[in-house]
UniProtKB/TrEMBL annotation:
The keyword Chaperone does not apply. It comes from Boothiomyces macroporosus. Pfam families: Ank, Ank_2. This is Ankyrin repeat protein. Keywords: ANK repeat, Repeat. The keyword Repeat applies.
Length: 288
């Protein structure tokens, strides 16, 4: 249970070292830090431990420059402390607003982001995608312009919920369906399925690149999906078959050979030559 400042004034005071020792001896809340021993180390300790009542008392002893120093050097992100200190010193005096803003994004603190009130850039949105906080991403997106760059980053990081949010706002066919190619190459089945369901996406782009790389990388479920959607496994001189043979993807080879368009002898029997070279006997038997 939180201790209010009135209760705290009645609790015995200790030096910083004694205070830490009392905590290690399982006596949390039985003592308080004597503000006569207030140092940066002791403040950092209170922040790390989340001792907000004692921090509020400590803040009354700090000058604005001390508070600004805390904001610039906090050892851990703490939304309550950041908001409290900014309210005490005034936002105009905070020198590292952008750094705090980005730390707030990383830590998912929408309240801090709102308080810091910085211009939102594409880099900020990409940061929110990387750390996967949907509430933060939604907040930033609502205050900025969506871009296909965000879709590409979300796809690359396998953030399907963000991809779902962006699809109605941007064109997924950008750069010859780059988003689909990324998803297929990396093996992100759910994102691939989502993208191929969009009528703007062309699964045949760049000589069926998506299928070629899914086969090469061994992503069987994606290969099945793309073939079912009409992708041509014979495209690019039977690249899909040749490279699935070369990399030992037996189930994919078996699937591709069921398609009448596939030529297992393409490129001077490249497929069987590499299967033999690599010692993939099961694949060799399929090709004979």
């Amino acid at each position: 249970m939180a201790i209010n400042t009135n209760q705290l004034s009645k609790i015995p005071k200790l030096t910083f070292q004694a205070y830490k020792e009392s905590e290690s001896q399982a006596h949390p809340g039985c003592y308080q830090l004597d503000l006569a021993y207030l140092t940066l180390d002791s403040l950092y300790y209170l922040i790390e431990r989340g001792h907000y009542s004692q921090l509020d008392l400590a803040f009354t002893k700090l000058s604005k420059s001390d508070m600004l120093g805390l904001l610039e050097n906090m050892p851990v992100f703490d939304e309550r402390i950041i908001i409290r200190l900014i309210n005490l010193v005034g936002l105009s005096l905070v020198r590292n607003k952008k750094e705090l803003f980005q730390s707030s994004i990383v830590n998912g603190s929408v309240k801090s982001v709102q308080l810091l009130n910085q211009e939102i850039t594409t880099s900020d949105l990409i940061l929110s995608i990387k750390y996967g906080n949907l509430e933060m991403f939604d907040y930033l997106l609502a205050k900025s312009e969506p871009s296909v760059e965000l879709l590409l980053h979300a796809t690359d990081l396998n953030k399907i919920q963000i991809v779902e949010r962006l699809l109605p706002l941007v064109d997924p066919s950008f750069d010859s369906d780059l988003a689909l190619r990324i998803a297929c190459k990396k093996g992100y089945f759910d994102i691939t399925k989502l993208l191929v369901s969009d009528s703007r996406v062309n699964i045949h782009s760049q000589a069926n690149y998506a299928l070629c790389w899914a086969a090469r990388k061994g992503h069987l479920a994606i290969v099945k999906l793309l073939v079912e959607k009409g992708a041509d496994p014979s495209d690019n001189d039977n690249f899909s078959l040749k490279h699935s043979c070369r990399n030992g993807h037996y189930e994919i080879v078996k699937l591709l050979l069921q398609d009448s368009r596939v030529d297992k002898h393409a490129d001077n029997d490249y497929a069987i030559a590499w299967a033999q070279e690599k010692g993939f006997e099961q694949i060799v038997q399929l090709l004979l």
